[in-house]
Every structure is written in structure tokens, then in C-alpha cells.
Amino acid sequence: MLLVLAAVGGWPLLRTIWFSLTDSELADLGDYAFIGLENYVGEYGLLASPEWWQAVGNTLLFTGLSVSLETLLGLGVALLLNQASRLRTLLRAALLVPWAIPTVVSAKMWSWMLHDQFGIVNHHLLALRVIAAPLAWTADPQLSLFSIVLVDVWKATPYMALLILAALQMVPVDCYEAARVDGVPRWQVFRRITLPLILPGLLVAMVFRTLDALRVFDLIYVMTSNSRDTQSMSVFVREQLIDFGLVGYGSAAATCLFFMIALLSIVAMGLLRKTFERAAA
Amino acid sequence: MSRIELRGISKRFGDTPVLNDIDLSIAAGEFCVFVGPSGCGKSTLLRLLAGLEDPCAGEIEIDGVLVNDLPPAQRNVAMVFQSYALYPHMSVFQNMAFGLQHRKLPAGEIERRIADAVRILQLDGLLQRRPKELSGGQRQRVAIARAIVRQPKVFLFDEPLSNLDAALRVQTRLEIARLHRALGSASMVYVTHDQVEAMTLADRIVLLQPLAGRNDAASVAQAGAPLALYHHPANRFVAAFIGSPAMNFVDATVQSLGDGRVLADAHGMLCAAQLSPQGLAVGEPVTLGIRPEHVLLGEGAQRARVSHVEHLGEVSHVYLELPGVSTPLLAKSACDDIAIYDVLAFDLPAQAMHLFRADGVAQARGDAAERSVAAVNG
């Protein structure tokens, strides 16, 4: 098991880190020189590149916005679905549809819907007189990241909702009944009983989504290609590696991305362990 | 004072009737126990009182106020759940305080009430613990304390002892009885499937029977003082449920009727029963009943072989083979030298006999029955 893991995970990772210390190019991978940390801290190194920092900023903004919106909406949907009803099973299945569609397909679908001239979104907003002129959802630098966040929220909210629903269904019913007999107001019940009891599950879901969102690639690449205004770290890596053929430089960016996510994962796991210990105590 | 009145209560889940036509009044300060086999709706009846379920028909009054449409919080009841329903993430103190914090109580009142409950239920030193760090008995006491601090008019207990082991159950039973005396004015309604709990705790027992899909049957098999149910069961269901081991039943036909006396023929064995012959006819098929503790061994004219013996130490359960009857007659005996295959003399005292008509209704026994049974045992 560890061998397999080392073969599929460890080897490519080590190779990427090695490449990041060289000046190799895509045209001829065999011809390279070792240049140390030049790709990171050199004059033209990653850490001095405004494009890279813009990509980092875009990614963090995207992650922060989408995960918080998905958590809030997911929680709302989960609370609604947690009410016993005949429709619940059906709704649970229907909910999964956005999650089940491949991202490339849904990204393309939304690109068309958000198209500034022929898109159905502009058409309806115009008809309803919400906007006076068509909006360039994916091209306008002010709007494009916002549009991408919206599509991601549309896609990932069901996932959040289902994970939170699972946590909600673990809360013992009699705790709610005890609170009802005691006449505790609904908001208090939510804040003092529901929320603390689903917190471990909620945090796991948020960590998963955050790690996912930090690596975001397909959605942004399909909707806005290499636009600097929305480029995420992963899109930046691809651009350097493939479009510009700078394997060494691109690998350095990929390595940075890897260490950022690794660091966040470790922090998140520590946080989760603490929460679980508190819940278990 | 908090009197509870139930009038014509019925409850169905979908098409399944659970409770039917319940008329009941529970006096202020009374300890009333709902008992019955599983599926008889006793917990549902309690939840109707709490307001966690709504009746399909009928009226519920607490303290003279019609509470049908009042939410649980406004009924002034506190409930102790079978699973305790403690909030797992809160300390014992928070568990008790949580139900009070939203009420605008004077400063220090919450602490004062909790201190009282801690004293009554001996929870000192546990206040900062989480429910997980408590034993089953301690959790149970916390659950009861949480009910006490609300100072309700009515306490509702839903099988509070069923998750405890046997020794702890006896101890907690005593504590609940003590608590009832200490709290005085509050009524308690207690649900259990355990007749020993019912007999020991209750001022009054309400024995419920499962409806088993029938819409016409009434849910309450009998309501009354524990010893009234024991000595004067209204029907065969009550007679079989109350008492452990259960009453012996033998099919018989009425042979002759006398003044306060019925003679019945049970597969060739003539049995006299000292009870009212009113409404019986000679030749009518009936069921005779006698409790194991009332069967006399070693005297009388009847003879039977012992098919099995259970020695419990203080008492022995002796199973007697009767001709023509498939289930053996069970007798309790203080002798522990009885062995299997012994042939014993036995007697079924007329004053200890119960008689049930074909529809299960008991034939009235005189008030003398209790006294004469005591004399037989003495």
C-alpha cells in the first residue's frame, strides 16, 4: 500500500520538486542545468512575480467566497431537508445532479448561459428590467471572478448540504424534544444544541471544500481561460508549464501550491482533532 | 394543585389505532403509573400529555386548563426521557440551566434551584462533568434534576429505569418514591413495562392493553390502586399481567351455583370458587384462575406429579402436571426439598379462586377475598 502510494504520489512529487530547481523547458526535458532556488527567489523568480501573487490572491478570494457561501447555503438547504417529508428522498437525489455533472460540462453550460450577447441570464434579467444593458459576466474583470464563484456555489452547495444533512441526522431527536418541553426558543435550540453538535461534521465538510477550492482549475480554465483577473494558482501553473514551456518555473509554482495546501491541511487536521476531542470529551 | 383530566382520548398513527377512548383523571399530587406490554401506547399517552404528540380526538386538561392546543412549554410539565436526552456537549450544570435561561428568572434563582436539585439528588461534585463522564445512574439523576429545577406542576417519566442494571434500578426506584414524597404537591405520571415498578411506586396504576388493530377495544384495561388490580382484576388480561410469576389459568365449565359460591369442573377436577354467581349459568364455559402463591401444597384432596422445580432460595416454583391440561399448574412453595417426579397433594382454596367468563370479564369477588387470602397464606 505504501509502495503504491510512493509510486503514484511520491515519485511525481519528488520529480516536480527536482524540476523546480532546474531551468528545464518543455521543448527538451533532457537538457537542463541545476540552478538552485533561482526559480523561487531569483530576480525573475516566482516570489517576485506580480502575476503569481495575483493568482494566489485570486485563488484565496475564490476559496474564501465560495466556501463561505456554500457553507451558509448548504446549511440552509440541509436544515430544510432535515424536516421529515415524503419529498425528502426525491430531493436528496435531485440535489446531487449539479454535483454529478462533470465540471467541464457545467462550466461550459454556464458560460453559454452567462454569454453577454446570446446568454439566457442576460436575456431574462433584461426582460425583468433588473439590468439596463447586457453584462459581460465572464469577460468583465469586475464580474468574472464573481461569476465563477456563483457557478462553483451552484455546483458544490449540494455536496455541502448532503454532508451537513448527514451530521444533522446524527443529532438525537430526544434532545430536541427535551428542549421543546422546556420551551427553549428555536433560535436558542439551533445555536446551543444543533450547531455545537454538527460542528465536527460541518468543519470536515468545510475543510474538504477548502482544499478542493484551492486547487480549482477546470471551472476557471473553461470559463475565462488564462485571464489574469481570474487566474488561479493551478491555472498559472498550467500556463507556465504548457503554454510557455517553462517546466522549471512552472514546477516551482506547482511546488509552492503543494506546500500551501499541505500546510493548510496540517493546520486543518489539528483543528479538527481538537474539535473532535472536545466533542468526544 | 395540578389535576389532570383526559376525556375520550384517541390516537392513531396513519391507519393504526394506538390509543382508544381513554377517560382518566389523575388527582393532584398523585403518583400515577401507566403500565402495559409493549405496543399498548403507554409512551404515546405520556407524549400526548407532554404535547409532543397531538390526540386525534378527546380533550386534555391540566389544572383546569384545556391544553390540547398549547405547546409543550406552556403546559407546565417536565419530562424525563427513557434515553435521558441529556445534551451531550453541555456540562451537568449547563444541562440543568439550559431550560431555564430563556425564562426571565430573578438573578441567582437558577443557581439556587440547581443547588436544591443537586442536594436532593446527591449530584455534588458532578456539575462540571459531561454526560459521557457519568455512569448510567448518575445520568438518570441528572435527567431527573433537570426536570426538578423547572418546578413543574406535573412530572412525566418515560421508562426512566429501563436502561439501568437490576441493582441500580431498585435503588433509583426508591429515590423516585422518596422524591415524590419530598415534592408533595406535584403530580407524577410514570410509564413502565415493569409491573414491579408499577406496584411499588404507584398510588394508582393504569393498565393499558394493546389494541392490536381493533378500533372498538378500549385502551384502559383497568385503573385503580395496585392491590385492587392484584386482588380484583377486572378481566383476564389484567389478571395475567399483574403478578409474577403470572396467574395460572384452567379452562372449566360451571357445574353448580350456590350462594356466593361457584363449583366448576376443570377436566374432571372439581374446583370451588368463592365469588358471586351472578349472571353465570350451569354448563357455561369459563376460565378459572389462581395465583401461584395461593396454591397450597402438601394438603387437600387433589394429587399431581411435579414436572419441574425451580429453586430460587427464598421460594421454589413447583410445576404440577394436571390431567388433560397442557400447561402445568405453577405453585410457589417455601419448601426447598421438593424434587421432580414427586407426587404431591395440593389444594386450590375457594377464596383464592378467580373466575373469568368466555369474554374475559372477571366475576366479582367479595371484599373478603383479600382477607381470606391473607389468612390462607398466614
Automatic annotation (TrEMBL), chain B:
Domain ABC transporter: 4-242
Pfam families to which the protein is assigned, alphabetical: ABC_tran, OB_MalK
Record bears the keyword Membrane: yes
DNA repair found in the keyword field: no
Keywords on record: ATP-binding, Cell inner membrane, Cell membrane, Membrane, Nucleotide-binding, Transport
InterPro entries, A to Z: AAA+_ATPase, ABC_transporter-like_ATP-bd, ABC_transporter-like_CS, ABC_transpr_MalK-like, ABC_transpr_MalK/UgpC-like, Mo/tungstate-bd_C_term_dom, NA-bd_OB-fold, OB_MalK-like
GO CC field: ATP-binding cassette (ABC) transporter complex, substrate-binding subunit-containing; maltose transport complex
Transmembrane portions of the chain: none
GO molecular function: ABC-type maltose transporter activity; ATP binding; ATP hydrolysis activity
PANTHER family: MALTODEXTRIN IMPORT ATP-BINDING PROTEIN MSMX, MALTOSE_MALTODEXTRIN IMPORT ATP-BINDING PROTEIN MALK
Protein name as it appears in the record: ATP-binding cassette domain-containing protein
Annotated source species: Candidatus Accumulibacter meliphilus
